[in-house]
Amino acid sequence: MKRLFCFLVATLAVAGSAVYAQEVDSTMPTQTLTSEDVTIEESVDYVPAISLDARFGYNGIVSGKAAGFGGDGLLLNIDGKISKRFSYTLCQRLFESAGDDSSVFGATDILTLNFEAGNWAFSAGKDYVILGNWEYNAYDLDAYFDMNTMFYNSFDGRRWGVTAAWTNNSETSTFLFQVANSPYSEEPKVSSLYSYALGWQGAWERYESYWTVNMWEYSHGSFVKNIALGNIFYFGDFSLTADFMMRAVELDKLTDNMSLTLQPAYDICDKVRLFGKFGWEKDSGNMFDLTGNSFDSMRQENEECTTVMPAYILPDKDYLFYGAGVEYYPIKNNKNVRLHAVWSSNNYTDRHGINIGLTWKFDVVNAISRIFKR
């Protein structure tokens, strides 16, 4: 806790320094700058964007005893520029120790140094493995657990690695290549297990794509192959997200393990969004974690499970899940506060879950800036 407190103090100090730099008298004569001041680039805004994001709510099972209030996470996000070409990104989970990485990095989702040069962009550090799926690409605080695929809730793709991307001049297509530690690597620095990804992101007025081909090494020379096709279609205020994934150790059995989700959404106005979600998953043998649990033990855990979502998908029964929800932004022209209410169910447990809560984004730089202006 002491280390975390020091970390937060340091973050606020950085924000304060950034705001102070922003507030410096702009009438200072530019003649004081010389050609040797190569670190000063007039077109670059060095003030980082810093926010603390959190979600809180009530979660319960209809006609059940499992219910209560609780938080869904507190995340620190920092994005900033070092120079015209170099930038950095940090997404850190606070008050949480997760993963097999060491110390603070176990709770780090993203920590990258980024470089841009023309149509090219490169990043190095800890990031999510590239995976062509809009559900997987969503920010954690924008996802609702019982409405997610089992894959999303079971797969930890936060890994150290490097990524290269090339974008065409019209900025309609970006092609990506990534090499990183494998999601199945339990000891990142010594396991020598890697993941490889080729991806394509497209963006037009009525359509966005995010497609990838992935290879995740689970033992030396042995890979899980994955094909992911993420699509979003826009029709005015209505949108339809369609994600499809199929994965297997052997290519001829790709359809034995798959996920298909459809998420329609309608923006009634700037403040209200309605959405639904329908999903279908198949798993021929615990593909998510490759633990090798017996099917009998998996069935037993499902019978003892008291949550809306089952513990496992069994090979003899497809998993169908569905839900609906509404999001409301109470502040005019501001998305920093959001209220939500969602309902979810599935064909495994026949239980119905509800989640009602709120999400807020605390803009640290803006808050400190207001204090300085008083």
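The record above closes out task 2.4. Task 2.5 opens with a second protein, given below.
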Amino acid sequence: MPLRLAFGRPSSFGAAPFLRRVEGTIPPEMATQSSWVVVGLDNGGNKNNATVLDPAKGSLVDGMIETPSRVTEGPQIAVEALVQAFDSILERTGVARARVRAVGLDTPGPASADGVISSMGSTNFAHEGWRGFDFRGALEARLRLPVVYNNDGNAAALYAHHLCFGAEAARHSSVSAIVGTGLGGGVIEAGRIVKGAAGMAGELGHVHIPMPGLLAEGQPIPRCNCGFDGDAESVASLTGIEKNLLPYWLKRYEGHELARAGSLAQAAKLVRSLGEKGDPMARRIFEQQAMAIGRLFTIAANFTDPSAYFVGGGVVETALEFREWFMGKVRENTILREEQTRAARFALVPDLDMAGARGAALAALEHATRL
């Protein structure tokens, strides 16, 4: 029996306002309240995105509300930038600060469960000041409000899970792989994020995957920014394209137009559009990325056996033909038992531009109910 695939736009779970599809996850007693709200803050390498969630009305923000994140300037400046994003979203929605009960924060990982950035650093946090920095604690002290932390992959995974399963979210599990500058991810069990003892659960990009059959003849073992060789992110990420895949494939496609792009960083950003157009080299690169994600999902199938596998990122925010081709390649390389094939589904992470902020808001909402 073929595995169920959900193609279409990333918002293919439905265009209804945020939480209308997950209203069953909000307790009835909360849905009648309108005295308080939560704020979701999505921190990225370049921009912060913010949203406000009212238990009675749902999201008060339909689209992205972005402000500069300034993370390259160090943690102190970045914290102030988040405070500005917080103030701006309240002003934009006309919500008084006194109504905010909790704030959800997501950032790129790796970081601890309490929002302390890894001592090894991070792809997006190159400034030395970030190593071991307590991001959640610093923002909480600055805002004087409870701040609930998740990494960006976990936040997006939580949003995808709840929007997909709605009132049944607590009865299902899922695994998400989100391709961006790095490879984010999230593991959801019974509707909640699995964080692990040190908060490093769901760092799917740094799971080692088998390389035989994935790499072409003479292709070097790819190296990740984290220091690992042969993990999923070293292949399935924009950084992986720039540092590992393009240098190899440009030598096999002499005279390719990307060789004249000026730099590997600029060329890497153009691979997706060429892939949509059917460029042979670009398709070969994305085939390797799909194989990496499929092998990652195969590993996940044997330790979580999830109800759903979600794929997100720019690689699936493309034309229908390319999305179907890419998702098909992911499925071909995900080896499941017959029973798992009947039970599981593949789908795209919906509304990816807002998934982080909305997932962060959902986590804050859950926390706020216990205050």
